[in-house]
């Protein structure tokens, strides 16, 4: 069992509600709680290219040989560009863990996808395929390619401040700083 000490965490930059186009995403590479690198790319607002773009960022990253895990700050980037976590895991050969501070209102997400988002039915199926969120170490997780025990080990090794793993916390802070000129609190 890997120690899950080397991970890349992704979050998207803030964007205006009316924005239709590409949204930058930031990935931070950590060895335990030490930042080793940053990558960035773009995904389409409410699109369907997030798994492909994250795969590209992971596979071209200088630290790729050392990575044990991919972390996502929620299951979607750039609004409702839902990440196909199973495809991302399969294409990179790495487990994927979705982390949320609070348990999402899945019925509200389902309704929004089915009523307001083009391709929402397909995107909802991707979320359903991940299964329910599981409470673990004061956060909620969904996972592909790792056990609940391994997910707990990863959270233990990668969390320093609060409950959010450092790769996600840093990606959130960097994304906010780039997007608005200053970073803001909670990831």
Report what the structure shows.
The structure is a single chain. This protein is of the alpha+beta class. The chain has one domain: archaeoglobus fulgidus dsm 4304 superfamily (archaeoglobus fulgidus dsm 4304 fold, 2-Layer Sandwich), CATH 3.30.2170.10. It contains 6 helices and 9 strands; from the N terminus they run βββαβββαβααββαα. It has helices at residues 50-59, 85-92, 106-116, 120-130, 148-158, 166-180, and strands spanning 6-12, 22-31, 34-44, 69-73, 76-77, 81-82, 96-100, 134-136, 139-144. Strands 3-2-1-4-7-9-8 form a 7-stranded mixed beta sheet, with helices on both faces. The chain is globular. This is DUF99 family protein.
Q: What kind of sheet is the major sheet?
A: 7 strands, mixed
CATH class: Alpha Beta
Helix and strand succession?
EEEHEEEHEHHEEHH
Structural class determined from secondary elements? alpha+beta
The stretches of 5 or more residues where confidence is low (pLDDT under 50) are none
The shape, in one word, is: globular
Percentage of residues in helical conformation: 25-40%
Strand % is: 25-35%
Number of helices: 6
Number of strands: 9
Number of domains: 1
Mind telling me which CATH architecture this is? 2-Layer Sandwich
CATH topology group: archaeoglobus fulgidus dsm 4304 fold
Indicate the radius of gyration in whole angstroms.
Answer: 15 Å
For the terminal residues, how far apart are their CA atoms?
Answer: 28 Å
CATH homologous superfamily caption: archaeoglobus fulgidus dsm 4304 superfamily
Mean pLDDT metric? 95
Spatial arrangement of strands, main beta sheet: 3-2-1-4-7-9-8
